[in-house]
Amino acid sequence: MAAGTEKTLKIALAGNPNSGKSTLFNILTGLNQKIGNFPGVTVDKKSGFAKIKNIAVEFIDFPGSYSLNALSEDEKVLPDVLHDKNNSVHPYVVLYVADATNIRRSLFLCTQIMDTGIPVILVLNMIDLLEKSDEAIDVAKLAEELGIKIFAVTARDAKGIEELKLALIEPLELPKKKILSEETNEPDKAKKQRTETIQRYKAIGEILKKTVAKKESGVGSSVTKKIDDILTHRIYGFLIFFAVLFLVFQSIFSWSAYPMELIEQLFSAGEEFLLNHLPAGMLTKLLVNGILAGISGVVVFIPQIALLFAFIGILEDTGYMARVSFITDRLLRKFGLNGRSVIPLISGVACAVPAIMATRTIPNWKERIITIMVTPLMSCSARLPVYTLLISLVVPSEKVFGFLNLQGVILMALYMIGFIAAILTALLMKFIIKARERSFFIMELPVYRAPRWSSVGLGIIEKVKVFVFEAGKVIVAISIVLWVLSSHAPGDRFQKIEEQFRSPEFSQHHTPEELDKLIATEKLEQSYAGIMGHFMEPAIRPLGFDWKIGIALVTSFAAREVFVGTMATIYSVGDENNTMSIREKMQAEINPETGEKRYSTAVAFSLMIFYAFAMQCMSTIAIVYSETKSWKWPLLQFAYMSFLAYFSALMVYQLMK
Amino acid sequence: MKLSELKPGQTAIIKDFSDDDLSLRFLEMGCVPGEEILLERIAPLGDPIAIRVSGYSLCLRFSEAESILISTTENK
Hints:
The complex is a heterodimer of chains A (657) and B (76). With 657 residues, chain A is α/β, with parallel strands linked by helices. Chain A contains 29 helices and 12 strands. Chain A has 3 domains: 4-214, 3-Layer(aba) Sandwich (Rossmann fold); 221-255 and 301-378, no CATH class; 473-656, no CATH class. In chain A, a hairpin with a 3-residue loop joins strand 10 (399-400) and strand 11. In chain A, helix 10 runs antiparallel to helix 11 and helix 17 packs antiparallel against helix 27. Chain B is an alpha+beta fold. Chain B has a single domain (3-72), classed as Ferrous iron transport protein A (FeoA) (SH3 type barrels). Chain B has helices at 20-28, 62-65; strands spanning 11-17, 36-42, 49-53, 56-60, 68-72. Chain B has a 5-stranded antiparallel sheet. The mean pLDDT of chain B is 90. The chains are: A alpha/beta (657), B alpha+beta (76). Chains A and B meet through helix 3, helix 7, helix 8, helix 13 and strand 12 of A and helix 1 and strand 4 of B.
């Protein structure tokens, strides 16, 4: 392919947000898409490849914007690429997608691009909606006035696409004339941009006067207005919003549980199969317990990501998401958040990984970073097994106020603590993080439309791909490291353990199963993770933790629920799902220094608070890295959350002991 | 008069802007002087607001609306 790439025609897709640009991109390229970065910046670039009559074409989807006078990093990409002929994605032609029902504003950016001297083909999208509206566009006349080719299409049902494709490979003429012919002689750049904007709109107005006519029959936007009357109503609006949130939460919290369980079963069956059929040895163990377990840890997130993005795709595509921002902005702005932060925060109660991916819809950089930084404080489902184990250990199952179960009240309180910590941290970060751009809320409220299922589907595929290939790499790497730490020991320690336990004095008194458990426990304690646990003990003793908990802190960096499994191994309980017996063993554990129970109420609460705040999740770190495209943010997040966890746990233990 | 003083359902003509940074963004979005706007609705918590301009709905914060100077037209 390398030889052919030079001949590939590069075609840029540009247009306003909500113009249907992405839908057209999907139709033109199908599943043949690739996600990367624009050269030199951290803005996502979607490219798609197609063949039109044997000519290879690469479509490049540029971020939606309203003008070439860029403000944000996303919007800057288009002018930068257009002005730089040597840029590797400098296009041969710009395919400008315009919402036909919004022609005046659409033509603003369109004519700006034309005036840079690059060939432009105008795609008038949503022509079906225009036909229903109170306006009519004389397309032929408009093409003549602008001096470019125009195609009227309806991207959602692929109407008019074939002609458009053929036109793309025909020889193109350069723009004949400039829409804004004379340069403004104004030394002040900002003033010049303002003057030119007014003049450009004037010029567009003149063109539209000749080409757009008012119709009598149109319905205008009355449907959208009626829907808005309900969806932004001060009572129904919020009720519907909470219902939507509940549905989203339910789907990722409980519906995704079935496919996730299936994936885990498939992987453990596969792991067992490989262990039994491959020659025993180090490589097999690495493959099965390190790599395969890591891949399983990646794949298991796919159902949650797919479900969340199915909902987000629908909410975005219908235009509802913009209304969510509209009704919640006032409240969330105070905390440095955005209306669109609500979906990530609520999703964070199920899992921070898809939740952080959902922050893409937040247009303001600072608000998005704050949302990413605080979302992992929301109590995710991986904390639940840790909480239930520890609560059952120290909180009696008794009624308070006659009807509330005390255990349930404590669990509820832990969720509340996570939420409050997230909100307060957001507030703090609002004052610390510097804004890259001024926070605007000047945003279009698009008309309501039925969702385009193909875009929703492609959106899901795209998100899953990003997660698997970008965050997945980091997750597999960390999981191999953790596997090495917990299953290897310096020198011949493991060999000695085997020899010791296989000796007759042990095998006489224990069944083979018991022996296996005892060996597993001893090995974990002697492993590198065990050494780290011992090493950490002085630092975590003030929190009430011993080196055994230290081991669990190391291993559960993979995911919080691993804490329970590690406890099972440490206390020689074979089946980690048997919470009952883990609990009994932990309850019986005596602190040799005090002679009292190791897991006192103070220790259990200190641990719970620690897990409420600590960034014990490699997948979250991986996704924050892939979403912010920098190690700075995940490391900062890890640092502040560990700090918060350590000191909160310290306080809880010292006050309660 | 400022856009922030308009009531839902009222229309007005854009005259000028009092914030240079914001004004370019408004201009680009089609809010040019002389253009008629309609205050469509105010969000349930009192902020932001939605206006109809140039055939579409635009929402903006109250503080941003204060920077748009308008003159009212006849109301129906």
